[in-house]
Amino acid sequence: MNEADLLRRLQQANEKYGFVDNRDLSAAVEGEYAIIDGGHVPKIRPASLADLAFATQLDYVLQEIEKQMPGTIEQLGGHDEVVAVDLGCGTMPYAGSLMTVLASINGSIVLYGVDNNPEAIEDFYKGRNSNIGVTAKEGDIEKLHEIMAGYEKDTVELLFLFNPSPKIPFPELKKINSSLTEHAILIGSADGVTYNSPGHYMDGLRANNYRIIVMAHNPFGEMLNTGYWWSPKSFTTLNFSPWFVAVPEAA
Ligand SMILES: C[S@@+](CC[C@H](N)C(=O)[O-])C[C@H]1O[C@@H](n2cnc3c(N)ncnc32)[C@H](O)[C@@H]1O
To answer: Going by C-beta distance under 8 Å and a sequence separation of 6 or more, which residues neighbour residue 75?
Structure first.
């Protein structure tokens, strides 16, 4: 895909979700916002550009899901309530962007984040996520059924799993009670820049009886840097690529 196509995708998503001032979008495309210069960040992009990049890729992936399983996303739109859980949410820098795209599918989507690191949960609420209606829960991914036990609804429709295991084994998703997630669609990404390789992610999904239905390179990886979302201090080289969509294999 050439640069003109990528720009067109960003512009289309921006028209739909409206994250970025058009001047910022042009400036970014014309290279006025530097990305990485010898490990330093000379100019910081507005966080909204990272939001837009994330939403553009998610929008594309949702279209790919529709191609593979026609009607799936439309059906989610018809549910009274849709429950989405971000597994290993960390500080969830993409929460605002994710919520915006999800709300366009169904206005009653409820988004939770789960992480077993209490500091990550604390930082989650210190950042931009404090007032966008996302709830973070401390707990283990593998015990999601226990974490969700107190909620009225006993199914989760969407699971997210971004950059889950840079230095630790892939989470054992098969330990989650299957009735909770048996109809869920999992969307997430590896991160080829650190230790979280695409192969590791694919093996992890397969070992947990998930069938991969979409694998999509993320051409906006450089725009998706936590430093742009939070602050230069938290700058880390993530690229959120490639993205995967997977569904649990019927037992
Ligand atoms: C590299 S971070 C990614 C955070 C976020 N998804 C992102 O992309 O910015 C991985 C996160 O997964 C969490 N994590 C790893 N294994 C977990 C488990 N079994 N249960 C809950 N959280 C877990 C870690 O605490 C960490 O915050």
So the answer is: none
More confident residue, 195 or 34: 195
Q: Are 84 and 159 in contact (CB under 8 A)?
A: yes
Q: What is the mean pLDDT of residues 48-55?
A: 88
For residue 118, is the peptide bond before it cis, meaning its omega torsion is within 30 degrees of 0?
no
Instruction: For residue 82, give the H/E element and its range.
Output: strand 82-87
What's the 192 CA to ligand 1 centre distance in angstroms? 16
The structure's pTM equals: 0.92
- Select the CATH number that applies to the domain covering 3-248 from these four: 3.40.50.300, 3.40.50.150, 1.10.3730.10, 3.30.390.50: 3.40.50.150
Q: Give me ligand 1 centre to Cα 90, in Å.
A: 5
